[in-house]
Amino acid sequence: MQLTSxxxxxxxxxxxxxxxxxxxxxxxxxxxxxxxxxHEQLKSLQADREAKAVTLKDLExxxxxxEGELEILEIKVDEHETRLFAGGMSSRETEHMRLExxxxxxxxxxxxxxxxxxxxxxxPAREAVTSVDAEIEKVEAAKAELEQSIKAQWxxxxxxxxxxxxxxxxxxxxxxxxxLELYEKMRGIKEGVAVASFDNGVCGGCHMTxxxxxxxxxxxxxxxxxxxxxxxxxx
Length: 235
Ligand SMILES: [Zn+2]
Hints:
Blueprint: H1 3-27, H2 30-86, H3 91-172, H4 177-189, E1 195-199, E2 202-203, H5 212-220, E3 232-234
Parallel strand pairs: 1-3
Antiparallel strand pairs: 1-2
Helix pairs in contact: 1-3, 2-3
The chain binds zinc ion.
């Protein structure tokens, strides 16, 4: 095991920690949470819009039908009245026709009420859809703006990541395979810090002091490791 190789390991670790921090920063941008909230809000607004559009469509269909029925009633009343005016019917027939007209007019007036009621209901239903549409447009615009901001920040972070990865490639070159394997394994179990500096008898990884006997034990090995945390020690 080359001592220069150990020192190189500290450089590598510094780069790896910087890369970890950048990756973490990439995934924890505050805008990402806001974006997620906007996305959820948009989904619920769209569901709301769909429900309101169904209500509106239903009212419009009912209105169409009522208007059609009203038109038919108006034609019938006209026809009956024309026949009454024309005369030439028996008095029984005339009375029957008169009662028929009366009944048709009652139906007509009820249908007119219904049409007016539906017209009153259609307007607010249409406004409700329009108002949700405006809300959706607002949230979509905010979402698009957030997306731009996130993309711009990611671009900066990714460029920095690219530079660090490039430097990592050359930092890896002088380190031998076995040491690298141990380094990676220790990084995995020691929160990314596999290598620690050793200063004044203190391990830079766990900050514990090694007694002279412990130091002797640690440095007797070709690959010195902290007796407490097992991190690789670099003097
Ligand atoms: Zn230690």
